[in-house]
Each structure stands twice: as C-alpha cells, then as structure tokens.
Design brief:
CATH topology of the largest domain: TIM Barrel
CATH architecture of the largest domain: Alpha-Beta Barrel
Number of strands: 12
Oligomer: single chain
CATH superfamily of the largest domain: Metal-dependent hydrolases
Length: about 200
C-alpha cells in the first residue's frame, strides 16, 4: 500500500485574505465580491470592502464561490477503506462492552477516501465506533493532518451505546428481531457499572 499524493499543508502564521469571491455565510445573505480573512488557520472576519493590514497576504479569487465546510456525522471515514476487504476495517472491537475504545486512535490518516471527501466540501468528520452494546467514544476529526493526533479536534465527543430492537413485529416483514437502533450518545463518561445497567435489557 502506497501513500496518497496529498500532503498536509503547513499552518500559516501570516494573515491571509481571499478577495473577490461570492461568499455564502450561514447567517446572512450571499456577499458578492467579498473578502474573507484568515489567521492561524481560523476565519477572523468576513465582509466587503474591508480594510486590510499591509502585512496581509492577498489572494485574488474573483469568480469563485466560498461556502462553509460540511461535517460528516456518525461516519466511518478513515476507519474503513474497502468494505469488501476485512483487513482494511478497524471500526469495531471484539466483545459487547467496550467503553475504553477511542475511535480516533484507529483512524488511517493516509486513507485514499479522505482527500476525495474533502474535495466535495467535507472538512470535518465524526469518527464513530461500531458494534457491541457499548461501542466506545467518537471523535471529531479535521480532514487534514499527518497523524490521528493532528487530525483530532475534539475527543471524546460522546459514548455510543446501542440497545437491542425490542419491537419484534417487523421480523416477518424483513425486519430483524435482534436489530440495532441508532446509537444513544452519552454526553459524559460513565462508570462501567452504570453502562452495564443501561444496556441490560
């Protein structure tokens, strides 16, 4: 397996301004011929005809459009490369109770799927463990970085607990009596004893 051609960029300490694009903020109408200013990897201001420091690096992006980045929630990006190849999957552990699992430590930063996903405007992904009643903790990742440590923005985000589907009515119609409902996310760390009680149906 070889590395993909994308190389993570260095964080710029210099202030950078993107000038001339149509900017689509979340909380206001589109800004034609707008200016977006970034510093140390963060957006610091958005507007039109804004005064800029002489030290600011100016990049003309006239005719382009700038949108907010998308977030892939409850995903397996970086945890599974090829569904049909079991050796490329690292989304679950053996056993039913695994509160110790941290999804970010299993992420492959060199996944070929990461640059492809990012090119579609997805800049963050919530890596979520699978299987078992207590699957482990998820982590919010930025889709840029040499290692999982560099990619991790927040960890843990939540403890993911799955309970059996108690509705057996749909079994004859194609449903599965032992199916799994969407994960219940516990917002804070819980003692193992409490988790055992929570999933003991």
């Amino acid at each position: 397996m070889t590395a993909n051609s994308h190389i993570p960029g260095e964080q710029l300490s210099q202030e950078v301004a993107l000038i001339g694009a149509t900017i689509y903020p979340l909380s206001s109408p589109a800004i034609e011929d707008g200016v977006l200013v970034m510093k140390e990897g963060r957006i610091v201001s958005v507007g039109k005809n804004m005064p800029l420091s002489p030290e600011t690096r100016r990049i003309d992006v006239s005719g382009q459009s700038i949108y907010p980045g998308l977030i892939n929630l409850d995903g397996l990006l970086g945890l599974i490369e090829i569904n049909a190849v079991r050796a490329t999957g690292d989304d679950s552990e053996t056993g039913e109770i695994n509160p110790n699992v941290r999804a970010e430590t299993a992420v492959n930063p060199d996944s070929e799927l990461i640059p492809v996903t990012r090119s579609g405007g997805v800049l963050f992904s919530l890596a979520t463990p699978r299987r078992g009643r207590v699957s482990g903790t998820s982590a919010l990742l930025q889709l840029e970085g040499w290692t999982w440590e560099e990619m991790t923005v927040k960890s843990p985000v939540g403890m993911h607990v799955r309970r059996p589907n108690l509705d057996r009515k749909g079994a004859k119609g194609g449903g599965h009596p032992l199916g799994v409902v969407p994960a219940l996310t516990v917002s804070k760390q819980m003692p193992v004893e409490d988790l055992n009680e929570l999933v003991s149906f």
